[in-house]
């Protein structure tokens, strides 16, 4: 029973950040643990309040609750069961605004600095996302498969529990949270991450708390008086209103035609505070209101259009929320339940049981009961709508006072438009200047094709490929060879399966085998018998007897290619290619063979020009190779 309840608890959207705070508590008594946790919770709330009073959360706010060994300490999924030490717990959905996630990391660093002995763990749907930010500086053993439960924040610093590299068993990489917390408490120096990793996170968070204000945008909106009064009383409600409007469905659209709660007859200009993310979402959400409802927008070139257009969208968002205040008694038509049910299926909650079977229906009824009892605390809740309806009934306001507050000018929103040059500058500031080889119409074509060939011949593994010239870049931290199976197409080793299931590969034998297939040559021995003990190297012996045949095919193909060049030379197609000196074609007067290098360079440059600065095949192909295209010099 407990396992099923915990599956029901764990279902959530993917846009979440989950955090645990572990204070030093030695007592095993439940009441004493709860009292100690409550004292730490009060400390945390006082510290956090200093920075969050003016912060505008995108979806959920930062919130901590008490968890002891007994209450809610069981973490369960299909593979493991684990008990956590007494701690404070929270989970926040951040939606489209990733800044909320990093602001929470800032708060956790702050809390671990100011509260002695406090250890924090934070992760999201991607796992240990702090390590992603510092990916260039991780220890050699670290990868996504073995870092779970190994990353913590203590005294404001990042701590990573090292892996015992002497044991390569995958199960040994898994670490229990209580063991990790104990390790940091007992050996804080040994677990301290490198200065490079620390600096990565510090640089990511360095603009806080000043960034709180710089991330806001203020604009005037022509709003129904009820909406203006609600936002004056509780500015944070702008976030759910914008989100529900931008994610509206046909049912919500019908609600916006009625405008039962916020009719457009009485409106005032109000100064509204957004985050830049919310403002961008609302601005770029297209909406044409129904004039029969009472919306009378001016023309788009009117000075009043911007404020009125914003006001219509915000009012519709509040109308949708208010209409959702009364939860449907039939949860089958509840959008929240539909989303929740789909997440349960993804979590394999029903264990592959036959639909409508007795066990399936029992699990389904438990899920429905849990959803109905907890939807006010889940993200699918109509609680916000209920709050808005109560504010409509209870708020006292004067229209004259609302009008007086709209005299301040709007913030400049030119930041919505980013030029390609500004984007390049932002990327350089974030990731540094990348070393490029500049290519233009005057570049040496041979060196250009050599660059591409070098990249194509470079060995790649499962983690991707890096350009040979960049492997030993001084800006790249030294990286060792990972202990993983790698297949190299540049070695001359034989195909063998060793005791540790490693595979070595003979590219020459493989090439010969493929050539056999292409030439319809069937070996005369049993090398094609899958049950035989032969390996790929046997193909080389078969091919050796046919070397003369391969040489003949090669020479014949060369003759065909030369003949084709000669025939195309006199046509319009042939004239379109760049030529080089006719070495090897003395029998044809004035014949010049095609210059492959020059034509390749020319065609790629023309492709790049046609992109008009946008992403395209040429820039996407050459960018990872470290090749930068420059066609601004001339059009020759």
UniProtKB/TrEMBL annotation:
InterPro entries to which the protein is assigned, alphabetical: Ecd
CC terms in the record's Gene Ontology section: nucleus
Region Disordered: start-end pairs: 466-489, 613-636
Pfam family, one: SGT1
Top-level taxon: Eukaryota
UniProt protein name: Protein SGT1 homolog ecdysoneless-like Protein
Species this protein is from: Tribolium castaneum
Name of the gene this protein is made from: AUGUSTUS-3.0.2_30757
């Amino acid at each position: 029973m407990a396992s099923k309840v915990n599956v029901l608890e764990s279902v959530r959207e993917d846009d979440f950040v989950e955090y645990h705070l572990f204070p030093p508590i030695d007592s095993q008594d439940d009441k004493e643990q709860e009292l100690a946790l409550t004292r730490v919770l009060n400390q945390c709330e006082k510290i956090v309040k200093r920075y969050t009073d003016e912060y505008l959360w995108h979806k959920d706010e930062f919130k901590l609750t008490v968890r002891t060994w007994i209450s809610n300490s069981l973490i369960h999924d299909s593979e493991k069961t684990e008990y956590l030490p007494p701690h404070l717990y929270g989970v926040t959905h951040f939606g489209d605004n990733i800044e909320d996630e990093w602001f929470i990391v800032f708060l956790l660093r702050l809390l671990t600095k100011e509260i002695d002995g406090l250890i924090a763990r934070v992760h999201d749907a991607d796992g240990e996302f702090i390590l992603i930010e510092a990916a260039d500086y991780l220890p050699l053993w670290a990868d996504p498969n073995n870092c779970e439960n190994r990353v913590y924040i203590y005294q404001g610093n990042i701590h990573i529990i090292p892996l015992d590299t002497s044991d390569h068993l995958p199960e040994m990489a898994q670490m229990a949270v209580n063991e990790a917390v104990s390790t940091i408490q007992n050996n804080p120096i040994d677990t301290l991450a490198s200065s490079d990793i620390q600096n990565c996170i510090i640089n990511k968070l360095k603009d806080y708390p000043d960034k709180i204000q710089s991330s806001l945008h203020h604009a005037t909106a022509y709003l129904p008086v009820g909406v203006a009064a609600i936002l004056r009383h509780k500015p944070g409600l702008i976030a759910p209103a914008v989100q529900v409007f931008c994610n509206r469905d046909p049912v919500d659209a019908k609600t916006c035609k009625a405008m039962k709660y916020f009719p457009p007859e009485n409106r005032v200009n109000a100064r509204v505070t957004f985050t830049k993310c919310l403002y961008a979402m609302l601005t770029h959400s297209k909406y044409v209101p129904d004039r029969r409802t009472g919306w009378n927008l001016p023309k788009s070139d009117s000075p009043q259009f911007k404020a009125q257009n914003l006001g219509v969208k915000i009012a519709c968002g509040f109308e949708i929320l208010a209409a959702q205040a009364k939860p449907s008694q039939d949860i089958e038509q509840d959008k929240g339940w539909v989303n929740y049910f789909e997440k349960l299926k993804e979590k394999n909650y029903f264990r592959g049981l036959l639909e409508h079977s007795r066990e399936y229906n029992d699990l389904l009824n438990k899920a429905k009961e849990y959803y109905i009892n907890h939807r006010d605390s889940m993200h699918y809740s109509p609680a916000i709508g209920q709050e808005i309806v109560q504010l409509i009934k209870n708020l006292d306001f004067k229209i004259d006072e609302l009008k007086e507050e709209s005299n301040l000018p709007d913030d400049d929103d030119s930041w919505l438009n980013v030029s390609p040059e500004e984007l390049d500058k932002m990327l350089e500031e974030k990731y540094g200047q990348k070393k490029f080889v500049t290519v233009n119409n005057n570049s040496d074509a041979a060196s250009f094709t050599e660059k591409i060939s070098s990249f194509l011949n470079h060995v790649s593994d499962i983690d991707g490929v890096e350009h040979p010239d960049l492997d030993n870049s001084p800006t790249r931290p030294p990286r060792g060879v990972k202990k993983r199976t790698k297949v190299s197409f540049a070695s001359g080793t034989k195909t063998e399966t060793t005791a540790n299931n490693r595979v070595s590969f003979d590219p020459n034998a493989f090439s010969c085998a493929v050539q056999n297939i292409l030439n319809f040559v069937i070996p005369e021995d049993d090398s094609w018998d899958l049950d035989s003990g032969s390996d790929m190297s046997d193909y080389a012996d078969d091919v050796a007897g046919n070397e003369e045949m391969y040489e003949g095919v090669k020479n014949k193909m060369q003759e065909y290619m030369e003949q084709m060049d000669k025939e195309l030379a006199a046509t319009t197609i042939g004239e379109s290619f760049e030529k080089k000196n006719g070495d090897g074609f003395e029998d044809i007067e004035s014949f010049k063979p095609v210059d492959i290098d020059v034509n390749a360079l020319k065609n790629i440059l023309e492709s790049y020009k046609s992109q008009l600065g946008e992403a395209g095949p040429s820039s996407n192909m050459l960018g990872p190779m470290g090749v930068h295209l420059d066609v601004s010099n001339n059009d020759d």
